[in-house]
From TrEMBL:
The lineage of its organism: Bacteria, Bacillati, Actinomycetota, Actinomycetes, Micrococcales. Residues 273-580 form the Penicillin-binding protein transpeptidase domain. It comes from the Bacteria. Belongs to the transpeptidase family. Pfam families: PBP_dimer, Transpeptidase. Its main location: membrane. Keywords: Membrane, Transmembrane, Transmembrane helix. This is Penicillin-binding protein 2. Residues 68-228 form the Penicillin-binding protein dimerisation domain. The keyword Transmembrane applies. It comes from Frondihabitans peucedani. The chain crosses the membrane at residues 25-44. PANTHER family: PEPTIDOGLYCAN D,D-TRANSPEPTIDASE (PTHR30627), PEPTIDOGLYCAN D,D-TRANSPEPTIDASE FTSI (PTHR30627:SF1).
Length: 603
């Protein structure tokens, strides 16, 4: 019994020990499980719940977003030669936080060299052409900053010099700059861009939406030293380059026209001048030159010079160049012909008290309409013009392109000055027949002669052929549809009559252009700038011409403002002759093979 009892006691103790160990193991397991669960929950929270936020924070500390520039498109001439283009430039930027101790380099022999911050600034300045103090200021203004722009828009050579320095905390950023390879050539037409890269003046402004590129973006990661990690760049938005504006301008001809014009402005003491060269068949502008044109590369140094085109933007009283339009209107309406006969005195008085006179005193003459145009008689053209009502003449003026901007829609382009007939007084009614009391731009006057040269069909004036986008699509293509203004006979009659101007009219004494029949008309208009709005002693002189007369291909208009050495239209003759000769030679126009039309001037 004792033995049995003893064995029973031992057995119960073993059970208690076993249960205790199991309980401790269970508690430990529960504790471990709880600890693991805490880690798992925390891991899930970090990797799932907070993943986006934490990733964003981490990337924000090491990932940098930069702009990828879409290059601004080119403006080119009719042959594709660049008038305005975009060149590669670099902004030199740095990480000031890592620049304060300078930098070290190791050469090919393993020799290490260390340069102080001041020495580094000197090297950067020497490489870029900047001032050492400017570089130092940028690097020390905020010594803990991760970004500072040291020099803006350096060229490729400067970029190469910076790269050779091997400074770890400097990184160039690609950018662009606008350039005008031919300087002032067509500067009056291209305009320029502002500091923000937007177009200002001229075609840069008018076609800004075509030319402007669309910027993209990329991100890259930087290391602990703030330097970009190689191969870490990722494009987040692709940049798109701007389109190309294709003009009708011949840059070589434009250059020559500007040279000739500036020389003649100086020779006759004029304040300014313009030249328009237009193709007769489609009204394409091959040259639009203005004296003293701005160089868009250095416009701030051109104070006092014209920043855009007077040929488009300035309105003036054209004077006698309008007489060709008055004659064409009368012929088209059937009330006149080249042989129309008029008795012409040198002055004419009207019952309402007004008076007009010819430029020079002369005895009473028996002139045909051809003679009236050749002699440029104000009295004679008034006798022809009054056969047409003022409402009819006004409507023809509108059809010839007056009173509105040309189809070019050049920025700041003038509509001229053309009031409705109901607002004309008796003097304006008469004066408008010979180009006074109304205003027009040089482009509008050239368009009148293009219409006559093109058999009476006015074509939309063209300065731009179109905009070619980077993907090859073409927009802004001008209309090629003409509008008949006068009959072909009326236009041809006027062109034939204007052949008399050089041999026996107001350009008598100007040497003919050898081998070519040329139709021309002079203009001398007083400038309305006297006190009270009257006419002063200054003039605008001009010559408009068509060649070859029997097969018109080109129209040339030269205009000079306020000449001092000679105030008659003949002062414009040398420039007209030189320019028309160059146009015919440049485009290798075949000489005339028919005799000049010699219509009777008198009866």
């Amino acid at each position: 019994m004792r033995a049995t009892a003893h064995g029973s006691t031992v057995g119960n103790g073993g059970v208690r020990h076993t249960r205790g160990r199991r309980r401790r193991a269970t508690v430990a397991a529960i504790a471990i499980f709880a600890l693991v669960a805490i880690f798992v929950v925390r891991l899930v929270d970090i990797q799932v719940v907070q993943a986006a936020t934490l990733n964003s924070d981490a990337v924000g500390k090491r990932s940098i977003s930069t702009t990828i520039y879409g290059d601004r498109g080119d403006i080119v001439d009719t042959n594709g030669k660049v008038l305005a283009g975009t060149v590669l430039r670099y902004d030199i930027t740095a990480v000031p936080r890592f620049a304060q101790e300078g930098y070290s380099t190791t050469d090919a022999r393993g020799v290490k060299r260390t340069y102080s911050l001041e020495q580094s600034a000197q090297q950067i300045a020497a490489a870029t052409g900047a001032k050492t103090q400017t570089i130092l200021t940028a690097l020390t203004a905020n010594k803990t900053s991760l970004y500072a722009k040291l020099v803006g828009a350096v060229d490729v050579d400067a970029y190469d010099r910076i790269e050779k320095l091997g400074i770890s905390w400097i990184y160039p950023v690609r950018t662009t700059a606008r350039t005008y390879p031919d300087g002032a050539v067509a500067g009056n037409l291209t305009g320029f861009v502002g500091t923000d890269g937007d177009g200002q003046y001229g075609l840069e402004q008018e076609y800004d939406s075509c030319l402007a590129g669309e910027n993209g973006s990329e991100t890259y990661e930087r290391g602990a030293d703030g330097v970009k990690l190689p191969g870490s760049s990722v494009t987040t938005k692709k940049a798109v380059d701007g389109g190309t504006v294709q003009t009708t301008i011949d840059s070589d001809l434009q250059f020559q026209m500007q040279q000739d014009l500036d020389e003649q402005v100086k020779a006759i003491g004029a304040t300014s001048g313009s030249v328009v060269v237009m193709k007769a068949s489609d009204a394409s502008l091959l040259a639009v030159a203005d004296s003293g044109s701005v160089d868009p590369n250095n416009r701030n140094a051109n104070k006092g010079l014209n920043l855009s085109s007077r040929a488009f933007q300035s309105s003036y009283e054209p004077g006698s160049t309008f007489k060709a339009m008055t004659a064409a209107t009368a012929i088209d309406l059937g009330v006149a012909s080249p042989a129309s006969q008029e008795i012409v005195a040198d002055t004419r008085r009207f019952s309402w008290g007004g008076m007009i006179g010819d430029a020079e005193a002369h005895p009473v003459e028996h002139l045909t309409l051809a003679g009236i145009l050749a002699d440029s008689s104000n009295v004679g053209i008034s006798l022809i013009g009054e056969k047409v009502s003022k409402q009819q003449r006004y409507e023809y003026m509108l059809k010839f392109g007056l009173g509105k901007t040309s189809e070019v829609k050049f920025p700041g382009e003038t509509v001229g000055q053309l009031r409705a007939p109901s607002d004309w007084d008796s003097q304006t009614d008469i004066n408008s027949m010979f180009g006074q009391g109304v205003g027009a731009s040089a482009i509008q006057v050239a368009s009148i002669y293009q219409t006559l040269a093109n058999g009476g069909v006015r074509m939309p004036v063209k300065l731009v052929k179109g905009c070619v986008a980077s993907d090859g699509t073409v927009t802004d293509v001008p209309s090629a549809k003409g509008t008949r203004v006068v009959s072909e006979k009326a236009a041809d009659d006027v062109v034939d009559m204007l052949e008399n101007t050089i041999p026996e009219g107001t350009l008598k004494g100007m040497a003919p252009i050898s081998g070519y029949n040329v139709s021309a008309k002079t203009g001398t208009a007083q400038i309305a700038d006297a006190p009270g709005g009257g006419y002063g002693s200054d003039y605008i002189i001009s010559v408009a011409g068509i060649a070859p007369a029997e097969n018109p291909q080109y129209v040339v208009l030269v205009t000079f403002n306020k000449p001092t050495t000679l105030k008659t239209s003949f002062a414009a003759a040398p420039a007209f002759r030189e320019i028309m000769s160059q146009v015919l030679e440049t485009y290798r126009v075949k000489p005339s093979t028919t005799a000049p039309t010699d219509l009777p001037d008198t009866w």
